[in-house]
Specification:
The structure is a single chain. Helix 26 links the parallel strand 8 and strand 9. The radius of gyration is 35 Å and the shape is elongated. The protein has about 700 residues and is mainly alpha-helical. Strands 7-8-9-10 form a 4-stranded parallel β-sheet, with helices on both faces. Strands 1-2 form a two-stranded antiparallel ribbon. It has a two-stranded antiparallel sheet with strand order 3-4. It starts with a strand and ends with a helix. It has 28 helices and 10 strands. The chain has 2 domains: about 350 residues, no CATH class; about 160 residues, STAS domain (Transcription Regulator spoIIAA, 2-Layer Sandwich). Helix 5 runs parallel beside helix 7.
């Protein structure tokens, strides 16, 4: 039982005169009894989980397949038009981006189309967000491409760009992908690359489904907005670097691993004299068309019913120009090559590759589900419906596991396409199904027509789509004004992701952001408080003017949990703010007493005389310290010990320490830590104002007793 004088000590406060001066009635707070033990609770949950009833089976099926819930309620007349428009437009935009991002992932263009097609269908079945567009995401493609390059090199394939292949060679490659395993001698570099990508995609999907099953979505809370933004911006520099060689038409190997950003640019400048001017001019012309049109789309997005599909137009025009101008034959421009129609038979991942890529798949899985969940929750809140974060992890996991059997690589939600989907009238997940139909049309009919498309055009499309991430530099002054710590986290994550590697950059960002949290609790704000006149409120003296202080009373607030990291900071800051270190005061008293004793002994001829220690020191400027504990979320054993030491040290120099506004967790920790011992008078109060009134009443009572 916690006894309050609002609040009194946990141990019985003795009924003496010192306890009777308070004007506040005594209160008793009894903690709630736990109705069930932990064992009973675990048994109950286990029975509930393991039970199997028709109703529970139905709930599980409907929970796992949300399409069975919302599709029967689909309002055809109200939703269909918006879903058709948004689905078709996003599909048109996805085609060129899927082809372009395939290069980033180290894959042939056809596999990017496969990935976008299967991801759209599977999310339609498993997803709960009505608006997000699931497909290829540039940062994940970069991370996949880096692992693919590493494994291709380990397998002994030549990393130098292969000579341009004829149509017959491409057909033979396609046959080898279908019929041979990754270790078969007839499986070429392209075949092995998609095997690595699909295997890593499978493992990333397994991780995501496991996170959903074990409900460990809390991992995403360690990826703050500033960290994710810095990571995406840093990865954007790496993406830009990896595509620069295509802009110049250079035939150089792709760098991977730590420091690939620097080594790639060194390689580019060493080979700058080999620039293909046909590719360079084509790249400049594409930039001149794409950037202004994209800016117009963004500027007039409120007036346009749908964005101008400029990327598709550029691809069509560039393909026609390359074909009829015979740029490949005349100038040696690198082209996309043959893109087969139809689908390849499914094939399982290469189980022998799993040990090589299992660790690489983990950050891909975390980034993928973090972006998907955050986007789905953001748009659900905006449009007034709810999404299930756990189901979103299942959905994005299945969007990776199932397509990995169909020669696909990793997917997640993508912000740019989601914004387009929302702005063009999307109402439900049916929009994603229509997007898949558009891609299916390309796969079955149109894909071979892109044979003469220059790779530099695809690189330009990829780089232009990085504008949003690179524009984050414009927000730095505003971010610095709002939070300097978040800005530093952004800069550290961005720099490490760009200059070291994407995976290490993510790890550095997470570790650095956690260190920032620790540092902020290690040296938190700890102001003295003053009284707001005609109220019961106490605020920081350093933050507000016209606050009053009570004579002889110091009010101190420590704005952080009190634990082993900051216990010394708590004590040193308290001593500094009050201007009194009790350890030093006691030492000074003892030293002065010894000196006076020696002087008295000399003056009295060797006869010792008792000296009162109180007479050898000057009186302090206060008699009570009130510690406002409202910002202390928790205490550990070191924090409890620090409070005990502070109370004991100040009591020895006749200064009383009162605790106010302790939450139940802190009070429980104090009880378990035996803070309230028999014979020791520790006081707790509901509010600072009550603690101050108590101290003033006690001082007045002591004065009246002394005068008598």
């Amino acid at each position: 039982t916690v006894e309050f004088n609002n609040v009194h000590s946990v141990s019985e406060m003795p009924e003496d005169d010192d306890a009777k001066h308070s004007s506040y009635p005594r209160m008793f707070l009894e903690p709630q009894e736990k109705k069930r033990s932990v064992k009973a609770l675990v048994v109950k949950r286990a029975k509930k989980t393991c039970s199997c009833t028709p109703a529970k089976v139905k709930d599980c099926v409907f929970s796992l397949l949300p399409v069975l819930q919302w599709l029967p309620k689909y309002k055809l007349k109200e939703y269909l038009l918006g879903d058709i428009m948004s689905g078709v437009i996003v599909g048109i935009l996805l085609v060129p981006q899927s082809i372009a991002y395939s290069l980033l992932a180290g894959q042939e263009p056809i596999y990017g189309l496969y990935t976008s097609f299967f991801a759209s269908i599977i999310y339609f079945i498993f997803g709960t967000s009505r608006h997000i567009s699931v497909g290829i995401f540039g940062v994940l493609c970069l991370m996949v491409g880096q692992v693919v390059d590493r494994e291709v090199q380990r397998a002994g394939y030549d990393l130098e760009p292969a000579a341009l292949r004829a149509h017959a060679d491409a057909v033979n490659t396609t046959i080898s992908v279908v019929n041979q395993t990754s270790h078969h001698p007839f499986c070429d570099k392209s075949c092995y690359a998609i095997t690595v990508g699909a295997t890593m995609t499978f493992i990333a999907g397994v991780y995501q489904v496991a996170m959903g099953f074990f409900q460990v979505g809390f991992v995403s809370v360690y990826l703050s907005d500033s960290l994710l933004s810095g990571f995406v911006t840093g990865a954007s520099f790496t993406i830009l670097t990896s595509q620069a060689k295509y802009l110049l038409g250079l035939d150089i190997p792709r760098s991977s691993g730590i420091g690939s950003f620097v080594t790639t640019w060194i390689s580019i400048f060493r080979n700058i004299h080999k620039t293909n001017f046909c590719d360079l001019i084509t790249s400049l012309l594409c930039f001149l068309v794409l950037i202004p049109t994209k800016e117009l789309n963004e500027h007039f997005k409120s007036r346009l019913k749908a964005p101008i599909p400029v990327e598709l137009a550029v691809i069509v025009v560039a393909t026609l120009a390359s074909h009829f101008g015979k740029l490949r034959e005349t100038y040696g421009s690198s082209v996309a090559g043959h893109i087969p129609t139809g689908f390849l038979p499914p094939r399982p991942p290469d189980w022998n590759l799993i040990p090589n890529v299992a660790l690489d798949a983990l950050p891909i899985a975390i980034i993928g589900f973090a972006i998907t969940v955050s986007l789905s929750e953001m748009f659900a809140k905006k449009h007034g419906y709810t999404v299930k974060a756990n189901q979103e992890m299942y959905a994005i996991g299945f969007c990776n596991i199932i397509p990995s059997f169909f020669h696909c690589f990793t997917t997640s939600a993508a912000l740019a396409k989601t914004l387009v989907k929302e702005s063009t009238g999307c109402r439900t997940q049916v929009s994603g199904l229509l997007t898949a139909l558009v891609i299916l049309l390309v796969l079955l009919v149109i894909a071979p027509l892109f044979y003469s498309l220059q790779k530099c055009v695809l690189a330009v499309i990829t780089i232009v789509n990085l504008r949003g991430a690179l524009r984050k530099f414009k927000d730095l002054p505003k971010m610095w004004h709002l939070s300097k710590v978040d800005t530093v986290i952004w800069l550290v994550t961005m720099a490490s992701s760009a200059l070291i590697s994407t995976e290490i950059g993510l790890l550095v960002g997470v570790c650095f952001s956690m260190l920032c949290v620790i540092f902020r609790t290690q040296r938190p704000e700890a102001p003295l408080l003053g009284w707001v006149a005609e109220s019961e409120t106490y605020e920081s003296l350093s933050a507000y003017k016209n606050l009053q202080t009570k004579p002889g009373i110091v009010v101190f607030r420590f704005e952080a949990p009190l634990y082993y990291i900051n216990k010394e900071c708590f004590k040193s800051t308290l001593y500094k703010q009050t201007g009194v270190n009790p350890v030093w005061v006691k030492a000074a008293k003892k030293k002065a007493a010894k000196r006076m004793l020696r002087e008295k002994e000399v003056n009295s001829g060797g006869k010792l005389t008792s000296i009162s220690v109180e007479l050898v020191s000057e009186p302090l400027g206060f008699h009570t310290i009130v510690i406002d504990c409202c910002a202390m979320q928790f205490l550990d054993t070191a924090g409890i010990r620090a409070l005990k030491e502070v109370c004991k040290d100040y009591r020895e120099i006749e200064v009383q320490v009162l605790l106010a506004q302790c939450n139940p967790s802190v009070r429980s920790s104090l009880i378990r830590g035996e803070f309230f011992k028999e014979g020791e008078d520790h006081l707790l109060f509901h509010s600072v104002h009550q603690a101050v009134d108590f101290a003033l009443g006690a001082q007045e009572h002591n004065r009246s007793c002394a005068s008598k």
